[in-house]
Specification:
Layout: E1 2-6, H1 14-30, E2 34-35, H2 47-52, H3 58-70, E3 75-78, H4 86-97, E4 101-104
Parallel strand pairs: 1-2, 1-3, 3-4
Helix pairs in contact: 3-4
Length: 105
Amino acid sequence: MKAMISQPMAGKTDGQIEGDRNRAIAELEGRGYEVVNTSFTDEWYSEPCMKERGVVNIPLCYLAKSIEHMCLVDAVYFVDGWQEARGCRIEHDAAVAYGVKRIYE
């Protein structure tokens, strides 16, 4: 079984984001899931590379890739506060619409 993580990031430090992600990974692995990485931190997703490729709306690019990865998973884990994050709400709506299992922190 595979799962991905949907987590709010706006207004959080890198340390807070990493802590939330690590907590979610531990929970999912404890339930027997393999976690599909949707943090997109490699060079391909750096701001300069995306601009060079013609990406105009970087947050929308991240969201599109995240939704694309949803087809690879059995479940999406929603970190607390997801309801306040636009991207997480869109991911949630997609999961509901397409029958992807939702797990809530």
